[in-house]
Amino acid sequence: MCLRVDHHVILDCTHVGDEVEITVDGKVIKAYEGEPILAAILNAGIKINRYTVKRKEPRGLFCGIGQCTDCAMVVDGKANVRTCITPVKAGMVIKTQDGLAKGE
Amino acid sequence: MLEKDVLVIGAGPAGLAASIEAGKYGASVLLVDLNMQPGGQLFKQIHKFFGSSAHRSGTRGYDIGKQLLKEAEESDVEIWMQSTVIGIFPGNKIAIEKGLDSGEKEMVTMQAKKIIIATGASENAIRFKGWTTPGVMGAGAAQTMINVNHVKPGQKIVMLGTGNVGLIVSYQLMQAGCDVVSLIEAAPKIGGYAVHAAKIRRAGVPIRLQHTIIEAKKGADGCVCGCVIAQVDEHFQPIPGTEETIACDTIALAAGLKPTMDLVKLAGCKLTFNGPFGGYIPLHNERMETSCEGVFVAGDTTGVEEANTALEEGKIAGISAAEDLGLLTADAASDKRAEIWDRLHSLRLGPFGERRMIEKEVVMDEYKERIGTPSPIQ
What we know:
The structure holds two protein chains of two kinds. By secondary structure, chain A is mainly beta. Chain A contains one helix and eight strands; from the N terminus they run E-E-H-E-E-E-E-E-E.
């Protein structure tokens, strides 16, 4: 799946950052350095970022601006990272978060 | 400990305007924001603004954002991005989780003579069966994804709500290449401006009035695969037997916003409930000072409006902070505020604006009655 907006009547959608690779739950995906992690993984068709603590329900993008924490994932061993306001870096290792998850 | 004349929290239009104004009169200003880029929600507003030329009508939101960033730079405002204020203590001491270039966070405590809180607003959710399913999101979240991050939140979108946000975001989703299937509105008429609704209608997208979403359908992948809508009666209750299922992978909720009050509450500012402004808001006076001495507010935090009113309120807060720091005489500050209040009055006209002008007066009258003189942070 590709959800990138490449052509737009108003916006210039040229990517500023270099194309890099990041790993999500063991799968390597392409991303642009500096874009929010959430944008890169959404483009790769991954819509579930975490599962809730008690009922293990899936959660994904909800506010997109760092307020709601529904997009929290485990990033480079650190739990509860809001992927909508955290920029991609080459080689990042990202995992779907289970409950509160513990950092590594 | 790091010391600054003014700490501004939130780098949207209100916070940027406040920083620029305070900086202009010689205050040392630190501006912090938890997002990756300053500008708040301006950079996702790719449409042209309405209003008078004094308020940059015909200019797109992101161009206003660029202009503000340039002015902030010229005013020597120090900006910390990816930084979150997590504590406000007596003596105006502040704890900040500062984002470092390395991606790590560092705890910093600092002291600010004046604090300006401009944390904006958050989107309201509408609760129906399955509303927490991935694929259900705020309309603003969908707008951020397409216009700022250039990634579509999904392919087939159903929009709930036809206020200006619902209408504009629907149109912008189409511009980004999404298939907007339908707009759903519980009221018997469209909430936003006809000019925006016309764009949707010209594109052939149905606007379903007197309908609501009663369920988000979950697919085998755990994400949204459709929604059930139903007609509502005059009390907005779904009418049994009118249900229809619409296939979609995204449900965007445009049901208004509420002021983001976390830091206002943390500082101990006295609040009031105001429906037209979106919920609980801090009481403030015409200088934008709260019940806490030296703590000012501006923008959507004081009641949900729009970018232009946020800009103007931010300027007032910046002027008042500079005045209290002795950088501006009381007379000069008072004159400058009067000019801005005139412009605010002209912005708060029309069917949407007039009610807000009246409510602003209500809030400031309540401040006079209940607060009078502000007292230091407890």
